[in-house]
Design brief:
- This protein is mainly beta and 268 residues long.
- The chain is built from five helices and 20 strands.
- The strands form five sheets. The chain has a seven-stranded antiparallel sheet with strand order 2-3-4-11-6-9-13, with no helix packed on it. A six-stranded antiparallel sheet has the order 1-19-16-20-15-14, with no helix packed on it. Strands 8-7-10 form a three-stranded antiparallel sheet.
Length: 268
């Protein structure tokens, strides 16, 4: 197993006080913590996101759309697990009611697209799966784990007047002007081993304690492991909360001192 190098990414919308176990260096606002992509898992990316301001209203294409548009990356599906939230913190996902592309363009231009989204007030343990083509935005005061296809394609539809380019033509062309499927969101209880996602591109579980034989068989390597409480030990390597490691499958002995951990693998 290898503990992956961490990259702290400063963002103007990031936080200067991060949830444990992270700390922001003095005078910085950390918006994301990335883990260097292991060669064994080129299709996956896992990161933490911390917001003190609303992020842009945006959308990602699927694989076929990215290819047709001549993009260098694949499309992007992702999911979010909220780990901390300030009072009234929310995530905007999908539209309140179906809208067509002309209405979406007009709303993006005048800013009312923000009010057309469904904003979910969140708390730790809330989980959302975000398929490609879903219009979405992360609100202020949210800390979350993002699991995604390893793609950097983002089409911004609205950005609160910030001096960054929008991508209206490309974004509206791939956007679903529909509500988010309620089956793709849920609240994860504080305890227990629970499947988070089982989609086209990745599968993820939140493990509580030592994984059983069936789960070990499901996560026959290579996989990513993110401890949330306790530690995971393999040989001389100790993986702590805030770390991410790549491993060749789940070994029950590695979780003797573990509490909660996230495990992720590519879909087969």
């Amino acid at each position: 197993m290898t503990v992956l190098p961490i990259r702290e990414v400063e963002k103007p919308w990031g936080m200067d006080v991060l949830p444990a176990p992270f700390t922001a260096p003095a005078g910085t606002r950390i918006g994301e913590i990335w883990f260097e992509r292991p060669v064994q898992l080129p299709s996956l990316l896992v990161k933490y996101i911390f917001t003190s301001e609303k992020l842009s209203v945006q959308v990602h294409p699927d694989d076929a759309q990215a290819l047709a548009a001549g993009e260098a990356d694949t499309g992007k599906e992702e999911c979010w697990l909220v780990i901390a939230a300030e009072p009234a913190a929310a995530l905007g996902i999908g539209f309140r009611q179906a809208i067509d592309r002309d209405a979406m363009r007009a709303a993006a231009l005048d800013g009312t697209i923000e009010d057309m989204l469904v904003w979910h007030q969140v708390q730790p343990g809330d989980f959302f799966y975000i398929p490609a083509n879903t219009v979405h935005a992360i609100g202020a005061g949210v800390s979350l784990i993002e699991i995604q296809q390893n793609s950097d394609i983002t089409y911004r539809l609205y950005d609160y007047g910030r001096p960054r380019p929008l991508h209206l033509d490309a974004g509206i062309a791939v956007s679903n002007g529909t509500p988010h499927d309620a089956a793709l969101r849920k609240h994860i209880p504080d305890h227990g081993t629970i499947e988070l996602a089982n989609g086209r591109y990745f599968q993820a579980h939140r493990i509580d304690g030592v994984p059983d034989a069936a789960l070990c068989a499901t996560y026959a390597g290579p996989i990513l492991i993110l401890p949330r409480t306790g530690t995971v030990r393999i040989g001389d390597d100790i993986v702590r909360p805030g770390d991410c490691a790549v491993a060749d499958g789940l070994d029950p002995a590695a979780f003797a001192d573990s509490g909660l951990a996230i495990v992720v693998r590519p879909a087969r």
